[in-house]
Design goal:
Number of helices: 10
Helix content: 40-55%
CATH architecture of one domain: 3-Layer(aba) Sandwich
Shape: globular
CATH superfamily of one domain: NAD(P)-binding Rossmann-like Domain
CATH topology of one domain: Rossmann fold
Largest sheet: 7 strands, parallel
Radius of gyration: 20 Å
């Protein structure tokens, strides 16, 4: 039986990847600081351990794994990454995990490891025009990410490439663009725009109002989790290292995103624009390279993934409200 190790298996993308690998017949070990929050893990072996400890990494890689996936990181949405209060933790924690895992995999003769980088590596100066952002893979230099999260991701890309060059470890690097879907953060301060807006819309009655950071004209693209996994596995099992964008090229403004979610909910809610952390002015996935190298690119319309995500988050909002009501009645 093929074996896979998923680091960060308690998180959003990692927990979904475990399910996908199990459906393909893998024996899967998951490792994280916490278990998945919204569903039982499907990993054959799930261990709660801290990969910032090098000895833990050595204990986790205790057998031959055909595939190792490294998703573990200190991360979150704009409310976590761009406020400035978490920069030291983001760099320190994520860099330690990558340093430890790479050295362990090199010593244990792991053949191939996947690293989840981010579109946050792209320079801020190429993403000031919300209608024409530039995110081709070769546009990353001269480097000027807009966050310390982006700087750490860019450093770690080079770390992985150095281990490939010096030790023969086969690495695969994906730059993710705003992955979303059910069973992800939605109310803990680390959620991203689709989840945050779904939560706000679900919690307000028709005709009400929700707050949106900035003027809402900033643009992004959002990729549904199933397509993220498909692209990641195709890259992992290819003969190409990357780095490569894995994201949708369907760009929308945040105001347009609100309109789409309002439509799904069947509501007409007003928007009140307020100050808040924003990140770059515009970002979209350039999918030319992934199509050239892998003959594949995401095709699912944004609205399809939003429908599934809104339904799930609406259920969480209802459950949370019922729990508060029950607690207040005691």
């Amino acid at each position: 039986m093929r074996k896979a190790l998923v680091c960060g298996a308690g998180g959003f993308i990692g927990s979904h990847l475990v399910k996908r690998l199990k459906s393909e017949g893998f024996w899967v070990r998951g490792v994280d600081l916490k278990s998945p929050e919204f569903a039982e893990t499907q990993a054959d072996d799930f261990v709660i351990l801290d990969l910032r400890d090098p000895q833990v990494c050595q204990n986790v890689v205790d057998r031959h794994f055909e595939e190792v996936y490294q998703f573990a990181a200190d991360m979150g949405g704009a409310g976590y990454v761009f406020v400035g209060d978490n920069d030291a933790d983001i760099i320190h924690n994520s860099a330690l995990i990558n340093l430890n895992m790479l050295k362990t995999c090199q010593k244990k003769k792991v053949r191939r490891i996947f690293y989840s980088s981010s579109a946050c590596v792209y320079p801020e100066y190429n993403q000031k025009d919300p209608d024409n952002p530039k995110t081709g893979e070769d546009s990353v230099y001269p480097a000027q990410p807009d966050s310390y999260y982006g700087w750490e991701k860019l450093f770690s890309e080079h770390l992985y490439l150095a281990f490939q060059r010096n030790y023969g470890l086969e690495v695969r690097i994906a730059r993710y663009h705003n992955i979303f879907g059910p069973e992800g953060a939605w109310n803990d301060g680390r959620e991203k725009a689709p989840a945050a807006i779904c939560r706000k819309v679900a919690g307000v009655i028709d005709g009400g109002e929700i707050e949106i950071w900035g003027d809402g004209k900033q643009t992004r693209s959002f990729l549904y989790i199933d397509e993220c996994l498909e692209g990641s596995l195709r890259l992992m099992r290819s003969n190409w290292t990357g780095p490569v964008n894995i994201g949708s090229d369907e760009m929308v403004s945040i105001n347009q995103l609100v309109d789409m979610i309002n439509g799904i909910a069947g509501k007409k809610l007003a928007i009140r624009h307020v100050n808040g952390p924003l990140g770059v002015r515009g970002r979209n996935s350039d999918n030319n390279l992934i199509y050239e190298k892998l003959g594949w690119k995401p095709t699912q319309p944004l609205i399809a993934g939003l429908r599934k995500t809104y339904t799930w988050i609406q259920e969480q909002v209802i459950k949370a409200a019922a729990k508060m009501t029950s607690a207040g009645g005691r």
